[in-house]
């Protein structure tokens, strides 16, 4: 059974810092991995999708990498801003059947 | 950009009542999903739906739950005889392809269900 974990559970940084969020999964037989952002009480906004054949994806200040063999993904946020404050979730596509989500990392970027 | 639309955004119901949560997936998507998130917990898979039938369901999705695609655009989740522990945010999602899901999943903004 696929298990997804994320560390740290919470992170507080001053504005402008670069930061890394980590995601680990136990079963490397995945089709893809997707990073989401969730604001309090709100829905899930897709940030980046990495297919299993890819190693990384970039969008603006965000860069996500995937090492399928070791069951790891990282989300790198450059030059963090207070507007980046949210919970970041990673989810793995378990061979197209359903997504398995991690518990999330709650990020606070202080002005 | 196409969106998955969910209604209502918030529903309050009395314990024992039936509720129907509604979703309009992206029009050319073929695979549809319901997930839920109990406050402070992980997002959990409930059910996937393809070609007018359930393709997979989790242990959570018992006889209390049902899904339907009553027409070409709506996708509904019915919860019968609601319990306090059904209080959660319910998310609908859709994707064009499954397996090699190049486009990823698009989630709706959720329906917050409160059972009192």
Structure, briefly:
The complex is a heterodimer of chains A (about 110) and B (about 120). Chain A is mainly β. Chain A contains no helices and eleven strands.
What oligomerization state is this entry in?
Answer: heterodimer
The percent range for strand residues of chain B is over 45%
Helix content of chain B: under 10%
How many strands, which pairing sense, and closed or not: the largest β-sheet of chain B?
7 strands, mixed
Task: Report the C-alpha radius of gyration of chain B, rounded.
Answer: 13 Å
The run of helices and strands of chain B is: EEEEEEEEEEE
Provide a count of the helices of chain A. 0
Can you walk through the features of this model?
The complex is a heterodimer of chains A (111) and B (116). With 111 residues, chain A is mostly beta strands. Chain A is 0% helix and 58% strand. In chain A, strands 2, 4, 5, 9, 10 and 11 form a six-stranded mixed sheet that branches. Chain A is globular, with a radius of gyration of 13 Å. Chain B is mostly beta strands. Chain B has no helices and eleven strands. In chain B, strands 2, 4, 5, 6, 9, 10 and 11 form a seven-stranded mixed sheet that branches. In chain B, strands 1-3-8-7 form a four-stranded antiparallel sheet, with no helix packed on it. Chain B is globular and about 40 Å long. Chain A binds chain B through residues 31-32, 34, 36, 41-46, 49, 51, 89, 91, 93, 95-104, and chain B through 33, 35, 41-45, 48, 55-56, 58, 89, 91, 93, 98-110, 112.
Jot down its keywords.
A: 111 residues, mainly beta, five-stranded antiparallel β-sheet, 11 strands, 58% strand, B: 116 residues, four-stranded antiparallel β-sheet, 49% strand
Topology:
The complex is a heterodimer of chains A (111) and B (116).
Chain A: E1 4-7, E2 10-14, E3 19-25, E4 32-38, E5 44-51, E6 56-59, E7 62-67, E8 72-77, E9 86-93, E10 99-101, E11 105-110
Parallel strand pairs in A: 2-11
Antiparallel strand pairs in A: 1-3, 3-8, 4-5, 4-9, 6-7, 7-8, 9-10, 9-11
Chain B: E1 5-7, E2 10-13, E3 19-24, E4 31-37, E5 43-50, E6 53-57, E7 65-68, E8 75-79, E9 88-95, E10 106-107, E11 111-115
């Amino acid at each position: 059974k696929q298990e997804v974990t994320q560390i740290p559970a919470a992170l507080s940084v001053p504005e402008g810092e670069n930061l890394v969020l980590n995601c680990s999964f136990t079963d490397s037989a995945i089709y893809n991995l997707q990073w989401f952002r969730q604001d309090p009480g709100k829905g899930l906004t897709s940030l980046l999708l990495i297919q299993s054949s890819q190693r990384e994806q970039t969008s603006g200040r965000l860069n996500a990498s995937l090492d399928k063999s070791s069951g790891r993904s990282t989300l790198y946020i450059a030059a963090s801003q207070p507007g980046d404050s949210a919970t970041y979730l990673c989810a793995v596509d378990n061979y197209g059947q359903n997504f398995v989500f991690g518990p999330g990392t709650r990020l606070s970027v202080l002005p | 950009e196409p969106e998955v639309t969910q209604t209502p955004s918030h529903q309050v119901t009395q314990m024992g009542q039936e509720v129907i949560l509604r979703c309009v997936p992206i029009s050319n998507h073929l695979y549809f999903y319901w997930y839920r998130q109990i406050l402070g917990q992980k997002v959990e898979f409930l059910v996937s739906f393809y070609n007018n039938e359930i393709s997979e369901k989790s242990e959570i999705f018992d006889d209390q739950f049902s899904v339907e695609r009553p027409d070409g655009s709506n996708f509904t989740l019915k919860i019968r005889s609601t319990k306090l522990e059904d209080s959660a945010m319910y998310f609908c999602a859709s994707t064009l392809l499954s397996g090699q899901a190049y486009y990823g999943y698009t989630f709706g903004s959720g329906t917050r269900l409160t059972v009192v």
